[in-house]
Structures are given as C-alpha cells and as structure tokens.
C-alpha cells in the first residue's frame, strides 16, 4: 500500500490531538484563573532509503499562556484576585504545594480556608484555619484579619497571611489538575514574595479567547478532513492497482 496512507494517518492523528487540547481550553472558559494550554506542530522527514520526499508532523504541547484573564468585581469579602504577576499557594489533593490564581475562597465546615474546588489555602505555617468569626477580611498583602464571634470591632486582629509567590515561570508547568508546580517534580517550593498583592472583592476569569479557539477548532477539523480524504484516495489507488494486476 502506498506510503501516503501512513503520512495521512499521522496527520489526522495529530489534528485530533490538537482538537482535544482546544476542546479542553473551551471547556474551561468559565473556570476561574484558568490558563490557556498552548500547542504547536513540528515536522520532520521520514527516514529511510531514497530521497526525503515525505514529511511527518507532530503535535506538541508548547506550554501555557500566563497572561491574566479578565477581572470581575463581586464585592464579596473572600473573593480575591492576584494583581499583576504572582500566584497563591494551595495544598493540592496529593498534599503537595501548588500555585493558582483562582481566588474564590471560602471557609469549609472544619474552618479551613479553601478555594472553590476545596484545596486548602496555605499561610505562614501551613493550611489556614479560621476560628468562628463575625467578620473576615483579606488585605492587599494577603493578611487575614478577623473579628472573633461575639467580639466588638476593636478586637479585629491579623490571624494569618496567605502565601503569595512569584516563581520563575520558566521553571513551572501546569499539572492535570490545572495547578502550577515545579517542572520534573522538583521538591523545593517557591518562597513568599512581598511584592505580590491581592485585590479584594474581585475574581480573575479564564484567559481563553473563545473566538480564537473556535477558529482553531474549525481549522483543525478541516485539516482532519483533508487527511481523511487522502486516506480514501490511497484506498482507491490500491483498489485500482489490484484490479489492474488481476486483469494482467
């Protein structure tokens, strides 16, 4: 069978992988703090006897788009957004420290301060626990102030401080859970950065551009269809060749 079939099959496979990445971005358009996954295609010649007349392509994950998403004012005391560069430290499901910009914070039934998906927020000495309080405020520096239940406003005191970091982005990668970590599972964690600040009563949305992703979705669909058409042509050529051999 003509080698064009294998070239076309490879092209269709890479288009499908890119399509999955684009679909993932579109599915997370409403995910707070989500950062767009980027991808790219590379090409290389098929090695073997004869001239390099055939080229394979390969879909590659080329990182993430770390540009900030749009901001919405909510007025809610526990909603925060990182101003400019930086991240908030959280405890991931596996117990490791990870970094996010999703600031839809809340207090669970155990008094832990968590984000919207339930990951504990890390403070000066680990996950932050909020005792019963009439009021909780989060300052620009990440400091958490509370008025204990039944107390007056003049008893407000700083309880803890959210760990804010700004690690070298070239050393970070996004995990399957959407949180950032050090590349290659490095054990070290980012140091707190006093230059990172928070805006209270604000949430950062996904930075996915819906129009751009939909255009890419259509382009990939057309590339897939073109490769399928080439595979059909290869099949037709094979059938014609078989008939000629039978008649000879």
What does this structure look like?
The protein is an alpha+beta fold and 248 residues long. The protein is built from two helices and 18 strands. A three-stranded antiparallel β-sheet has the order 6-5-14, with no helix packed on it. Strands 11-12-13 form a three-stranded antiparallel β-sheet, with no helix packed on it. A two-stranded antiparallel ribbon has the order 1-2. A hairpin with a 5-residue loop joins strand 5 and strand 6.
The overall pLDDT, averaged over residues, is 86
Largest sheet: 3 strands, antiparallel
Specify the structural class.
alpha+beta
Classify the beta-strand content into a percent band: 25-35%
Radius of gyration: 26 Å
Tell me which oligomeric state these chains represent. single chain
Total of DSSP H or I helical runs spanning 4+ residues: 2
Strand/helix succession: HEEEEEEEEEEEEEEEEEEH
In which order are the strands of the major sheet placed?
Answer: 6-5-14
